[in-house]
Amino acid sequence: MDLSSINGEVIGLVLALLASGAVAGLLAGLFGIGGGAVLVPVLYQFLTWLGVDESVRMHVSVATSLGIIVPTSLRSFLAHKKRGAVDLSLLKSWLIPVPVGVVAASLVAAYVSGDGLKAIFAGIAVVVGLRMLFNRESWRLGSDIPGNPIRPVCGALIGFFSTLMGIGGGVMNNTFMTLYGRPIHQAVATSSGTGVLISIPGVIGMVWAGWGHADLPAFSLGYVNLLGVALIIPVTTFAAPFGVKIAHALPRRQLEVFFGLFLLTVAARFAWSLWG
Asked: Is the separation of the CB atoms in 219 and 14 below 8 Å?
């Protein structure tokens, strides 16, 4: 990419990215998602306007989102933990399964197409969003989270698909925990911890998966774009605790509806880019 092409329009876009970082930080605390479901489509558009090759555009968006999620999830997790809302027992049982899923996803990311990543993102967001929007108390898979072998398998799947989506795991962890009778507030709080387990090995894996690719934009380390990380991290880490405060102030059902509408909106944006 020719750095001389950076002009006033791109500078304006950078400002827009900083604004999106503030929204992503709020969502990290509110939904326990690390903001990735917002950051991935925004970063994808950013790279499109810069003329980044289509073959790596979605990969860079996903990987850079994971890089941004690292400090955001850490700060959200610490804020929720301070309130005593995190299920630490569940997180400890996922210390191995979730990173295993992340490693598997990093291997897949080296070969799957950009459209494949977009389809995965949109498909999961639609399913989970509809479930949250039309949730009923009777929708339960059990009265409590299962043990072996279901729990580690679910942890590995959450790590796998979350990495390919560039999110911190909240999209699926919230669904998993609420389907087994856990309160949405506890699910949100625990999801911030899941984001830590996903984002750190996810960044390492995406650096490896994209290492040496010829079409990467400037300031990239593998698929992770360091410029995007540097621009957005300070804003998201500052905004995340405010999202935590909002999450603990909202009624359970209202939080579920907001979460569902948010996911459907994100899915529609990606569907439009695939078939629009």
From this structure: no
pTM of the model: 0.80
Work out the average pLDDT over 97-121: 90
Region label for 110, one of left (φ > 0), alpha (ψ between -120 and 50) or beta (otherwise): alpha
Q: Tens digits of per-residue pLDDT, 194-247?
A: 999 999 999 999 999 999 888 888 788 999 988 788 888 888 878 888 888 888
Q: Which amino acid is at 38?
A: V
221: part of which helix (H) or strand (E)?
strand 220-221
Kindly list the distances between the CA atom of residue 7 and the CA atoms of 54, 98, 103, 256, in Å, as whole numbers in the listed order. 21, 42, 38, 41
Q: Which of 192, 245, 165 is nearest to 32 (CA)?
A: 192
CA distances (Å), origin 269, targets 118, 121, 125, 174, 262: 10, 10, 11, 22, 11
For residue 72, give both structure tokens: 């955001």
Is-contact 223 206, C-beta < 8 A? Answer: yes
Residue found under tokens 């080296």: 110
- Please provide residue 215's backbone torsions phi and psi, each rounded to the nearest 5 degrees: -100, 10
CB atoms within 10 A of CB 2: 7
Question: Who's near 27: CB < 8 A, 6+ residues apart?
Answer: 33, 35, 37, 38, 243, 262
